[in-house]
Write a structure and sequence with these properties.
Order of helices and strands: EEEEEEEEEEEEEE
Largest sheet: 6 strands, mixed
Distance between the termini: 33 Å
Radius of gyration: 18 Å
Strand content: over 45%
Structural class: mainly beta
């Protein structure tokens, strides 16, 4: 099930599990008891000043006893074109709730290699870039991250820290009318 979040707060329940050696660990994210496979945030294009205030809020509640979020609750794996949005994470004082706020910052732009526009841009190597308006086919911005959680073993009181598989969020804006 894909969930589309449009400028609202949406609450989910996270169900972490212990990893089993040799098996893929799958943590379920549920909304109203139904599994959520992907999250999509859609913002309007910036044709008015009010669109700059668009923000989506994802609230993840820890649903399994003994588990809690660790640190800021997420670890980035990849943030494509992250100049196009702001993502902030907050963990509640009891570490049971993670709040992700995704804010719209402008019309979707993409970096192009200034030295050779036909080559893919290795952002860790290039210094000079040019901006271009994203085309409809590349206007989806993927944010890949992992949930970071801990389990407090009641027998030893030693916390164990785990990372989820890569859930990710897609930010989408309708194509710019020209």
């Amino acid at each position: 099930m894909e969930i589309n979040i449009n400028n609202n707060s949406t609450t989910f329940q996270l169900h972490p599990t212990f990893p089993v050696k040799g098996e893929k660990t799958v943590w379920q994210t549920l909304q109203n008891g139904k599994a959520v496979d992907s999250l999509m945030v859609t913002f309007d294009n910036h044709n008015s000043a009010i669109n700059f205030a668009q923000e989506a809020t994802l609230i993840l509640e820890m649903a399994v006893e003994g588990w809690s979020f660790f640190g800021n609750g997420i670890e980035y794996c990849q943030a494509i074109d992250n100049c196009n949005y702001n993502l902030r994470s907050y963990v509640s004082s009891d570490n049971k709730t993670l709040v992700l706020k995704i804010a719209n910052v402008g019309q979707t732009q993409q970096f192009i290699n200034a030295q050779n526009p036909d080559l893919p841009i290795p952002l860790d190597q290039v210094v000079a870039v040019n901006l271009a308006t994203a085309t409809p086919s590349d206007a989806d911005l993927a944010i890949s991250f992992r949930y970071v959680v801990q389990f407090a073993d009641p027998n030893t009181a030693e916390p164990q820290i785990f990372m989820s598989q890569d859930p990710g969020v897609i930010i989408r804006r309708p194509p710019v009318e020209r």
